[in-house]
Amino acid sequence: MTGCSLCPRRCGIDRTGAPGACGAGEELKVGSIVIHRGEEPPLVKGAGSGAVFFSGCPLKCVYCQNRQISHDAAGRVLTGEELAGYLLLLQEQGCSNINLVSPTHFAPRIIQALDLARAKGLDLPVMLNSSGYESIESLTRWRDQAHLYLMDLKYGDNETGRMLSRVNDYWDRAREAVAHLWETVGPLRLDEEGRARSGLVVRHLVLPGMRSNPFAVLEFLAGLSLEIPVSVMSQYNPRTYTGDMPEMKRALLPDEYDAVLERAVDMGFSTIFAQELDAFSAYTPDFQSEVPFGDYHRIL
Length: 300
Ligand code: SF4
What we know:
The chain is α/β, with parallel strands linked by helices and 300 residues long. Helices cover 29% and strands 17% of the residues.
């Protein structure tokens, strides 16, 4: 935590004194823990996915739907022992995996908690649910801990990352991260009951006016492999956008979403996950509520 370089921003800041650009200080902070049933189907078999949402985020996306915990870093400080206890509770509740949402800036603390939980019987697959803004070094840290990787590939160019997420090199870092994971982790593997056990899934949220450059994202992925499962998401919510670009103040149009889905089909991807166009109403959480995601069971 001193001279922090846990994410590609490499602030070099001493987090024992002040928080970094991610809003995270020295202590492990969790925004919420829920049994999540809204991830891609193989990830939520059984009771659902045991999702731990960490407070703070290295990106500052101007349309973030988790703003309360990502930008404002709201949440509760937990010790490693406490987090380990919650992970075991998620296993007891029948979750099919541990879903670490935006964990990068707390990686050493989480890994410590996972070790503690494993020593007490945790044997679920662990999923890294990431913005995609990762360094190879940060991914290597998880090599012995994580089995599933749910990675965003938000934009097909650096300029959009600069405008919408406030980092200069999103496309460069995220491409390297996805290519590295494809090489080291490979395709999604399911058990006999259809539960994901290991592998990579890449998500792309289509933005209004195609601002996210989705065709460049698909072309890049196709260049790696058509076996990469692609999740084409429609859940953009204009109500959470705080910038001044006119097209971002409206909902995604059906034609825009369909065009991206059709392109993915035409390119020949073997696995494509899709959403309903009104998905944003179900997936915009309120972390101040007792039930941040509607009826998903809240543990913390
Ligand atoms: S994890 Fe936070 S403090 Fe560390 S380099 Fe990234 S933004 Fe900076």
